[in-house]
Write a sequence for this structure.
């Protein structure tokens, strides 16, 4: 028996389908205190975009430290904090706490209003909760800025390493950068190679942290954790949606040029195929290339042999259409008691394949991947009407998250 | 196992052996491990780049056979062939049939969408 769902979160229930990514214009999305994460992120984004200030001086840094409630922040961290607000904020596409005079008070005020609304609803003690929440935001905010700036600094050097084909890769400074970036987490490679999976894991992490925060014994501790989480959600949305967009572009270009192994195993030349398995037919001499292609052509003979050995029992594994769909057919990924279809695409609609499945009146089980962003309403209804199921399979965790048609949410299943 | 199934299995085995030999020339070593799937995707894309339709058709069957064999060795089951010539792997327990060769053909039609890695990992997790 598989693990039971322990909690649930909404990955949005859109107007005409399931939007699997929180967004501003569709679905309910991940929510905190009754407010959508996308709205929260918009607020942070609005302030961040509007108030970027590239020319910060010592006074700004001091004001920022005080506003964040971190007067004793180490000098180098203060510098990094300022750098994160200005230079790297701009170079990475808009990220950064920006003007301490505007951004932090507005952020804090925004959070305070949300917290007050939440506490009014719950009838909790406001003073300790506010203190805890504010401290949590400040601590989280500082960590995010420091991390982002360090990340940005290393990223620039990594970008240079990539663009020069690893010319200086063995230099001690470059080695330190690559090592430190790995030590900061495997975020870069993860985000560049699989941004949607990284985002999905981020969302799951938020839910787990929310549960952990709510289990804290005191109002202060609980609010501190919630404030920390709340700010990370906002900053994380900024980071993923704005700042890392630039990083992903740079990283993707680098991957194309030098191959993704360069991010983990050192420099090498050639295209991505060459990096992964030395697969580049153009690189082979004519004789080798001809031999390879001839062997692949022999695959047709093997298929003929297999066909010749076909099972004598009557068994039609294709789904054939009738009526308007006569002459059409589709081959499900799996079938017996019903149809199982695995889809690793961004958007899904009720195309010919699913029309044929519907016509067959078989149960339909649809498994999508973390990169899937949207499933159309008609397709959702077709699956529901068939008595089937929809779930997200996350290859990173090996878990399936089934969709609850009635509640309109995907259920989280945690590893044992 | 029926005689016909043994013959199907024999054809699959020969296809897999030939694929291993072929990709060795390309610098790829196959071990019937799920981690091979990403390399098999690269092999298919490399063959597609050559524009040899016959080789690509054959590669689809060979790679599909290999993908199915990876699944069969991990979770069991047996190969079958329908009367209309679609190779299928019947899984143990549920009796579900999966169609790795057809999946590979879908992949090569839409490499950006139909990831074989996701397909195999999901099937392994599900069974």
């Amino acid at each position: 028996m598989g693990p039971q769902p322990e909690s649930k979160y909404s990955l949005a229930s859109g107007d005409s389908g399931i939007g699997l990514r929180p967004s501003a214009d569709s679905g309910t999305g991940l929510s905190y205190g009754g407010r959508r994460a996308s709205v929260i992120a918009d607020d942070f984004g609005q302030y961040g975009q509007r108030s970027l200030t590239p020319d910060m001086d010592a006074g700004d840094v001091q004001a920022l430290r005080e506003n964040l409630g971190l007067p004793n922040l180490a000098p180098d961290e203060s510098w990094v904090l300022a750098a994160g607000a200005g230079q790297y904020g701009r170079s990475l596409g808009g990220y950064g706490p920006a003007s301490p005079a505007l951004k932090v008070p507005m952020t804090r005020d925004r959070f305070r209003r949300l917290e007050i609304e939440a506490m009014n609803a719950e009838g909790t003690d406001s003073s300790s909760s506010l203190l805890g929440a504010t401290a949590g935001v400040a601590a989280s905010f500082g960590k995010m800025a420091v991390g982002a700036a360090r990340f940005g600094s290393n990223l620039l050097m990594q970008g240079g390493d990539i663009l020069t084909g690893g010319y200086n890769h063995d230099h001690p400074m470059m080695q330190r950068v690559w090592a430190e970036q790995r030590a900061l987490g495997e975020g870069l490679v993860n985000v560049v190679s699989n941004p949607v999976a990284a985002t999905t894991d981020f969302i799951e992490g938020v839910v787990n942290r929310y549960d952990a925060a709510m289990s804290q014994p005191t109002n202060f501790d609980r609010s501190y954790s919630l404030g920390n989480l709340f700010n990370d959600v906002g900053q994380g949305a900024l980071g993923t949606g704005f700042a890392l967009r630039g990083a992903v572009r740079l990283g993707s270009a680098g991957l194309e040029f030098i191959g993704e192994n360069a991010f983990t195993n050192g420099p090498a030349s050639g295209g991505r195929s060459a990096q992964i398995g030395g697969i580049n037919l153009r690189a082979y001499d004519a004789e080798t290339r001809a031999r390879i292609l001839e062997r692949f052509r022999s695959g047709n003979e093997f298929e003929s042999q297999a066909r010749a050995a076909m099972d004598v029992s009557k068994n039609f594994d294709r789904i054939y259409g009738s009526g308007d769909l006569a002459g059409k057919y589709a081959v499900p990924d799996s079938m017996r008691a019903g149809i199982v279809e695995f889809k690793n695409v961004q958007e899904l609609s009720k195309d010919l394949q699913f029309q044929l499945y519907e016509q067959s009146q078989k149960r339909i089980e649809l498994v999508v991947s973390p990169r899937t962003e949207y499933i159309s309403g008609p397709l959702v209804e077709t699956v529901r009407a068939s008595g089937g199921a929809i779930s997200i399979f996350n290859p990173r965790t090996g878990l399936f998250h089934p969709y609850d048609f009635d509640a309109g949410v995907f259920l989280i299943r945690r590893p044992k | 196992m029926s005689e016909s199934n043994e013959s199907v299995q024999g054809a699959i085995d020969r296809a897999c052996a030939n694929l291993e030999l072929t990709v060795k020339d390309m610098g790829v070593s196959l071990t019937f491990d799920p981690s091979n799937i990403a390399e098999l995707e690269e092999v298919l894309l490399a063959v597609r780049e050559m524009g040899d339709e016959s080789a690509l058709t054959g590669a689809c069957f060979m790679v599909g056979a290999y993908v199915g064999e990876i699944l069969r060795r991990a979770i069991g089951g047996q190969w079958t062939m329908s009367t209309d010539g679609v190779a299928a792997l019947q899984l143990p327990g549920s009796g579900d049939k999966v169609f790795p060769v057809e999946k590979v053909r879908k992949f090569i039609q839409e490499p950006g969408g139909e990831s074989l890695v996701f397909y195999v990992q999901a099937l392994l997790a599900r069974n």
Summary: The mean pLDDT of chain B is 87. Chain B has five helices and three strands.
